[in-house]
Amino acid sequence: MNRDEYLKQLEKYVRCLPKEDFEKTMAHFEEYFDEVGPEGEQDAIAELGTPKEAAYELLSQMLETGEKKMEPNVTDSEPDNENMNEASSAGKRHYEIKSKKKLSTGAMILIAILAIFASPVAIPVSITAVLLILTLIAAAMSMIIAAFLVCIAIILVSGKLIVAGLFTTVVSVPGAISMVGAGIIGLGTGILGLLALWTGFKFMGQLIRAFARWLTKKGEKSNEKME
What we know:
It is a single chain. By secondary structure, the protein is mostly helical. It has 2 domains: 3-103, no CATH class; 124-226. Helix content is 78%, strand content 3%. It is built from 8 helices and 2 strands. A two-stranded antiparallel ribbon has the order 1-2. The longest helix has 54 residues, at 173-226. It is elongated, with a radius of gyration of 25 Å. Residues 73-97 have low confidence and may be disordered.
């Protein structure tokens, strides 16, 4: 396998990343091959492992850290024996974070799904896991959308109560105070509900991320036992 064939296969595993992350990921691997040159191409491929292994290593570390813009940690210094043994036995490279920009919840979910497909678990298990994740996402999103609409309705009704209460002051001050008070309480409840929904959405992403990490690590352990 040469450089072009390697990059073409790698592209299949990371092409579903957000456009910016996909382009930067491929650019980083191309730069790495440029640095080692044609004479070091085969050694680089052996060190990176198969395209699937390289993609899995990259995606799993992005999943682990929740950060983007990771690339092969290329260095001119000689690695120590321990690191060499670790790299050769695992068939992996370490990836270095070049940016502290956090991945969005949506991007995290997508990376979790890609990591499952690139993991060393069996294909039927990967498909089952992804279908389970998609089912959970669909159910959770249905509840989130319904709750979001309820919160928006509460905010709109509360706003109307506040406005109506202000106009009622000329008729009944106590009635106006009651309406404005009820409107403020409702407005606060609606806003707190939206904040809770946002927190719940992020928590859902963290759960999916944790599940994907557990599944991929389980696949690694199963692979090691088979070897």
